[in-house]
């Protein structure tokens, strides 16, 4: 019988100590992130923490990628911020539930495979942009409120103390694995800085200075929203964007973790798990979310490979909120800042910088543009969409130049055109230039054995070409066209030679 959970698949080698310690590390790193993202959306810190618990637990149990961490994210916070301000938290919960339903539908319809359409240059740009965002978001920890209530850069002793603690955290994370990998370096760094600050009585910013994380078990709550078409019409655009952003970020994170672990996740299964998690998040007072690349990399770099680490992270996060808030609020932000800065350094694809001279200029442009859109707009879905569109246009342009024709006259005075390359909207103009209708002999053969008619533009180009030859009273033969093409050509009976053995079978993309 096939196991559902890798956690209970004892044929899989699982290091339970590493899984538990990695989960604990992730739980500590989730707290400031969840609180910050909830505040970005204009919501209570607990809505972010509850979302991190529900999202993390459900996706760890049922998701398509063991070791991947989900929770409240900045991408989702940006989407729902305007709705939270204009209509309140109840509409946010309803939006999260609707987004979850859309994500489940995407998984059922097997739309997860569409992530294969994202080129590697777009993934590079996405990852680099996300690394920059993770890094720049940590710079806020080096700011403080002045007397006017404005955020200004720290100065003097407080800045030096914070810098020293952050650098010490980074040094431990970098150096400890060189000595031993028995204990996760990120957790060791957090505990070491916590001990130093407590022992020496150092006055520095703590988690509690951001917001209180004390709370109870996530309360079940049906959103108080009128079940009317007007309400659905209001929240549907937000839900659709949230569902799209969440799936794009989750599936890209899945691909990145796949590459690191050299294993393969299941995209459609992850779509269903993300949707289920968001539905439950909306019912249990959470702001929703998706996969988190930073926390996923912390988890994987700590050695976690099974579902246990994600389950531990979610459960321990709830334990902290319910029973250990007073202790967790004493954690120095310097330690968590150092961890996230090291995550950003590890996330950035430094190899992509070395390939600038070797990669095609179009790929470099796409990578830089996706990075720019990600960093400036903090809209990951838009950045990926822009990258995919530009890559598709570049691909179309390159293929448009590849169509060519080999021309020759046989001993019977018949002119042959052997077409090579795809015939589609981008190559129609070049295709038409290949033919000399007025100068050609009375009989012409066009052979498509090395070509494919891809779309309706290609069909129309062939139709117009046949009409030009027919107007000149010349006999035209079209060879090696698929049955789909023959059905779409208006003069098919007169001009097409049917060869049952050799004619290809493929479909033409049309809008009929």
From TrEMBL:
The chain crosses the membrane at residues 20-40, 46-63, 68-85, 91-109, 121-139, 159-176, 183-202, 231-257, 277-298, 304-323, 330-352, 364-397. This is SulP family inorganic anion transporter. Its main location: membrane. SUPFAM superfamilies: SpoIIaa-like. InterPro entries: Membrane-Transporter-like (IPR052706), SLC26A/SulP_dom (IPR011547), STAS_dom (IPR002645), STAS_dom_sf (IPR036513). Residues 404-490 form the STAS domain. It comes from Salinimicrobium tongyeongense. Keywords: Membrane, Transmembrane, Transmembrane helix.
